[in-house]
């Protein structure tokens, strides 16, 4: 993920969840709370250090019909931008 992409993701996000240092299942549990409080269509940026999020965040989005807009790595963290389903 380039610096430009990273800045774009940050600019698009209405909510940010920094789950750095947390391990499965905590990042997804916290994401569920953020999504619950977000409005439909809101974009959420998730930052995590747990490699299991590479599997868990996309499955979370697929199962609950949220749109996973982007995923990648930046500064040693896994980054995801998703939009809450309507």
Helix content: 25-40%
Strand order of the largest sheet: 1-2-4-3
Number of domains: 1
CATH architecture: 2-Layer Sandwich
Low-confidence stretches: none
Average pLDDT value? Answer: 94
The CATH C-level class name:
Alpha Beta
Q: Round the Cα radius of gyration to an integer and report it.
A: 12 Å
Number of helices: 3
Identify the overall geometry: globular
What CATH calls the topology is Translation Initiation Factor IF3
Number of strands: 4
Task: Kindly describe this structure.
- The chain is α+β, with helices and mostly antiparallel strands.
- It has one domain: Translation Initiation Factor IF3, CATH 3.30.110.
- Helices cover 40% and strands 30% of the residues.
- The protein has helices spanning 3-12, 26-37, 53-64, and strands at 15-19, 43-48, 67-74, 77-83.
- The chain has a four-stranded mixed sheet with strand order 1-2-4-3, with helices on both faces.
- β1 (15-19), α2 and β2 form a beta-alpha-beta unit.
- The relative contact order is 0.24.
- The model has no long low-confidence stretch (mean pLDDT 94).
- Its EC number is 2.8.1.-.
- It is an enzyme of class 2 (transferase).
- Belongs to the sulfur carrier protein TusA family.
- Residues 17-41 form the UPF0033 domain.
């Amino acid at each position: 993920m380039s610096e430009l992409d990273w800045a774009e993701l940050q600019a698009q996000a209405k909510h940010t969840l920094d789950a750095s240092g947390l391990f499965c299942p905590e990042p997804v549990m916290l994401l569920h709370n953020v999504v619950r409080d977000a409005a439909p269509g809101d974009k959420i940026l998730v930052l995590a250090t747990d490699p299991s999020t590479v599997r868990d965040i996309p499955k979370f989005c697929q199962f609950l019909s949220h749109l996973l807009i982007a995923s990648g790595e930046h500064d040693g963290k896994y980054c995801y931008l998703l939009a809450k389903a309507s």
